[in-house]
Design goal:
alpha/beta, five-stranded mixed beta sheet, two-stranded antiparallel ribbon, 19 helices, 7 strands, 59% helix, globular
C-alpha cells in the first residue's frame, strides 16, 4: 500500500510518497499549473496508481483545482485539518522544526497510521457541488448585506434618525429598494425635509412600489419634516457623502444576494433530493439548498443519523473524567449547517403542529431555554431527514410526530 501527502501552497506544492513501513519512496516539488498536475499524476502512476486501485492522498484543503484533479475517479482524498497535522508533526520531531517537504511526509504518514480515524471527501455529484457553491455564496452575500446594513444604520443614527424611523415599519428595513431610493434622493435630513409629496411618490414608484403610494408618501413626508436635532451643516454634508459611499456598497450587496438567490432557485429544484427536502416543514428553496450544500448527496458519507447530528452540532456532547461528568452543547461542528438548522427549527415551530408541540414539551416539561429546545427540535428533524433521504420517502407529519405518543407524554 502506498500513501501520498501533499503540502499545498499558492504557487508550488511538495509531494511525498511512503509505503506501509514508513519508508520514503519519492518526493517531488511541483508547480500549481497543468504541467505540475501532470507531473503529480505521472508520479502516482509510476508507483502503482490505477483507476481501480488509486493511491489515497492527504492534503490540508478541500478546495481548489489540485483537489478537483485528484478527486477524479475513485481516489480517496483526505482533507486533514492543519491543527491536527501540526499535532502529528510533534510525533516525528520534538525540535519544532518545520519544512514543506517535511509536512508532506507527515501528511503521508497520517494516512499510513491513522487513515481509519479520518474521513475522505464525500463523493457528491456535480449538481450537488454546484448547488453547494451557489447556496454558500448566497449565504455569504446575505451576511455581507446585513453587515453593511448595520454599518449604515449605525452611521444614520449619528445624523439622520428621521430616515430610520421612516423605514422602521418596512420589512428588511434599509435593505429595501424604497429605503435605498429615499437615501439616494435625500442624503441629509435637511434635504429630506424639503422633499415634496410628488417627489416621494416618484421615488417609491422608481423603487418598484405598486400600492398605497400616496398614503406612504404622506407618512414619509410627515416623518421627514418632524423636529429633529441636526449636526452642523458642514459636518452633515460630510456625513451624507460617507452615507452615499456605504449606500453604493449596500446596493452591490443586495444585487449580489438577489442574483445568487435566483441562481439557487434555478439549480436546487433540479436535484433528485430537492423534493424530499422541501417536503419538510420550515424548509424552503434557499434554506433547503443550504442544507443540501452541507450534507451532500453521498449516501455513504454518514454511517447513521447520529453521525449527521454530530456533524450538524445539534446533538449534545458528554465530557466525563473520574467522578465528574457533564453534558453540554457541541462547539466543534459545521457552522453553516448549524445556522441553517437554527432557521429551520424556528420556521418549523409555526409550520408544523407536531414540531410546535415538541418545542412546547421541551420548554414546559424539561425546562429547556428557547435555544436548547429549538436545538433539540433541530436534532430530531435532521435525524428524520436522514432517514427520509436514505429510504427516498417524503416527510409525513403523523409519522414524525405521532399524536398518540404526544398525548401519552
Amino acid at each position: 500500500m502506498i500513501y501520498c501527502g501533499i503540502d499545498w501552497a499558492e504557487r508550488t506544492h511538495d509531494v511525498a510518497l511512503v509505503d506501509d513501513s514508513g519508508q520514503l519512496l519519492a518526493k517531488r516539488h511541483i508547480t500549481d499549473d497543468a504541467a505540475g498536475y501532470k507531473l503529480l499524476l505521472d508520479l502516482l502512476a509510476e508507483y502503482g496508481d490505477t483507476t481501480e486501485n488509486p493511491i489515497p492522498v492527504a492534503i490540508e484543503t478541500s478546495r481548489g483545482l489540485l483537489v478537483a484533479v485528484l478527486r477524479q475517479g475513485k481516489r480517496k482524498v483526505f482533507a486533514i485539518n492543519p491543527m491536527a497535522a501540526s499535532r502529528y508533526r510533534d510525533r516525528h520531531a520534538v525540535s519544532r522544526k518545520k519544512s514543506d517537504p517535511g509536512d508532506a511526509l507527515v501528511l503521508a504518514n497520517i494516512l499510513r497510521t491513522d487513515m481509519h480515524a479520518h474521513r475522505a471527501l464525500p463523493n457528491d455529484s456535480d449538481l450537488a457541488r454546484a448547488v453547494a457553491v451557489l447556496a454558500r455564496a448566497q449565504q455569504d452575500a446575505t451576511w455581507n448585506r446585513q453587515t453593511i446594513a448595520n454599518q449604515l444604520r449605525s452611521l444614520l443614527r449619528e445624523f439622520y434618525p428621521s430616515v430610520l424611523e421612516a423605514v422602521a415599519t418596512w420589512s428588511n428595513g434599509l435593505c429595501r429598494s424604497e429605503a435605498r431610493e429615499l437615501l439616494r434622493l435625500a442624503p441629509t435630513p435637511t434635504r429630506a425635509a424639503r422633499l415634496t409629496r410628488t417627489q416621494l411618490e416618484a421615488a417609491l414608484k422608481r423603487a418598484g412600489r405598486k400600492r398605497g403610494i400616496t398614503a406612504e408618501a404622506e407618512r414619509l413626508r410627515d416623518i421627514l419634516r418632524a423636529d429633529y436635532a441636526h449636526q452642523p451643516p458642514l459636518v452633515e454634508d460630510a456625513l451624507g457623502k460617507q452615507m452615499l459611499a456605504l449606500l453604493v456598497q449596500l446596493e452591490a450587496a443586495c444585487t449580489a444576494a438577489d442574483d445568487l438567490a435566483e441562481a439557487v432557485e434555478e439549480a436546487f429544484p433540479q436535484h433528485p433530493d430537492a423534493e424530499i427536502i422541501l417536503s419538510f416543514p420550515g424548509l424552503g428553496v434557499q434554506l433547503g439548498a443550504r442544507v443540501l450544500a452541507e450534507i451532500g448527496d453521498d449516501k455513504a458519507r454518514f454511517a447513521d443519523a447520529r453521525g449527521l447530528k454530530a456533524y450538524a452540532g445539534s446533538s449534545p456532547v458528554t465530557r466525563a473524567s473520574g467522578k465528574k461528568s457533564s453534558i453540554t452543547r457541541r462547539w466543534v461542528k459545521n457552522d453553516r449547517l448549524n445556522h441553517a438548522g437554527y432557521l429551520w427549527a424556528f420556521s418549523a415551530i409555526t409550520a408544523s403542529p407536531g414540531a410546535k408541540a415538541h418545542y412546547r414539551r421541551r420548554r414546559d416539561q424539561h425546562s429547556d431555554w428557547h435555544a436548547a429546545a429549538q436545538r433539540n427540535l433541530f436534532n430530531r428533524m435532521i435525524g428524520q431527514l436522514y432517514c427520509c433521504l436514505q429510504k427516498r420517502e417524503l416527510f409525513d407529519e403523523e409519522t414524525a410526530f405521532p399524536t398518540e405518543l404526544a398525548a401519552a407524554a
